[in-house]
Write a structure and sequence with these properties.
homodimer; 268 residues; alpha/beta; 9 helices
Chain lengths: 268, 268
């Protein structure tokens, strides 16, 4: 289930995921670390973009990082080895078909994964069973509907909407960030605390202009160009103008805004 | 100029402005205080919703708070007297027709004002002339285009868009928050630093559910109902459904997001 990964698996996409991770590490991950001896399940590690930070921040916890894609696991393994970390064990596995005993983990960590699943509620229920009583879950997701910018541009919103629609057709939800609170509530978690992590970019923030607006967000939208046009979702001229207008927001007087959401909840 | 205040001046509106100020004081104002002896111009004080916080946080600075509306000034005076503050002088005046000498102030403070002006760039240029070299300006504005929520609702977006459109027709710009960086840049300020102040509301945040989503934001949209319907902008049924859906976001599984922007810049 959910095997169509909307962003694809090519090399540029992998570089995009690493750029994103580097730029956003502080914003998204600086407040996540686990106690010595903790057993942590990272569900959906992808190419290891977050794994390196996660395991590096908690050198005395042990991580089991799973992903549905064998190729991504191979990349993630390399990234973790390159970082000199030895506290991560990798496993190719489907979140919806796991072989762990109930209450096998102290903590579960899920980042940029639920957006791609047709049953995020079911995934959370499955993951909850794997957490010990008193344990926690951390979930991080973006929300493409949180995107706005200056100068404003209708074609840019149209191009973004193509990704939202493609993700929907693949069974996912690109607007899931805002929904973390109700999803965790529905799954029966307690002490749910959600905090928005807004990325605000103007030209005084050179690293974010390059690392986020251009190389993460706009590259992601550009990545679905041919698929969206082929699917008849958008006129080629409109899409290309949308991309041009997204780059326009990276000029001296431009501004770009996007929000991630980070949720923390307990199993009691 | 800009004499049509889109929100009106009635008592419910005044209460709304005070509720908003109380709930958001920490988020918007906790990092603003001025040194003893500073002379500060508050341009557009309205009913004094911010003035009380501003003057209270800097008891040894002196404030000159101006507004175009004599009635608002009267309310602001009462609010400041009620708070027992004596460091504020009020003056009815138009930002575009001021009688102060150049470089009369150490600092200028502008909050929820530029959104109502047809020439915010000109207003900033005028205000800049009043600041001493080495002085600063602080600007706070909302951005209605930053509004999103769960459950999502097309009618709710339509109702919000009516306010954006009404404000535009009155010469203002309800999407100005994202634009503070370019506006201050254009006015020739230096060391511009903009920080977003996102209000994230889920049902675990009771004070914000009441104080912000219901009594501030939704009340503001409800306040333009008759005007928007009379102007033929929206069908009555759609508008009312939009309001209903905004209230729906305040239920146990609802989420509401809105962003203000706070800018700080220097005159060098």
């Amino acid at each position: 289930m959910d095997r169509v990964y909307v962003h694809g698996y090519d090399t540029r996409e992998n570089r995009r995921l690493r750029d994103q991770a580097n730029t956003l590490v502080e914003l998204l991950h600086s407040d996540t670390s686990y106690r010595a001896g903790s057993r942590v399940l990272e569900a959906g590690c992808g190419v290891g973009a977050q794994t390196v930070t996660l395991a590096g921040n908690s050198p005395n916890a042990t991580f089991t990082s799973i992903d549905i894609s064998e190729d991504s696991i191979a990349d993630a393994k390399k990234a973790v080895e390159f970082a000199g970390l030895s506290n991560v064990q990798f496993l190719q596995a489907d979140i919806f078909d796991l072989n762990f005993e109930p209450e096998s983990f102290d903590h579960v960590f899920v980042c940029h994964v639920l957006e791609h699943l047709s049953r995020p509620d079911k995934a959370l229920a499955i993951l909850k069973r794997l957490i010990k009583v008193g344990g926690t879950i951390t979930v991080i997701e973006g929300d493409h509907g949180s995107t706005y910018f200056y100068p404003d541009s209708e074609p840019a919103h149209t191009a973004i909407q193509c990704l939202v629609e493609l993700q929907k057709r693949a069974g996912g939800n690109a607007l899931i960030g805002r929904e973390l609170y109700p999803l965790l509530r529905k799954a029966g978690f307690n002490s749910i605390h959600v905090s928005p992590r807004m990325v605000y970019v103007d030209s005084s923030k050179r690293d974010l202009v390059e690392g986020f607006t251009k190389n993460t967000f706009t590259a992601m939208i550009e990545g679905i160009r041919d698929t969206a046009i082929k699917a008849g979702m958008v006129d080629q001229i409109v899409f290309d103008k949308g991309i041009q207008d997204l780059y326009r927001t990276t000029e001296a007087d431009g501004v770009f805004c996007y929000s991630f959401f980070k949720a923390f909840a307990a199993k009691s």
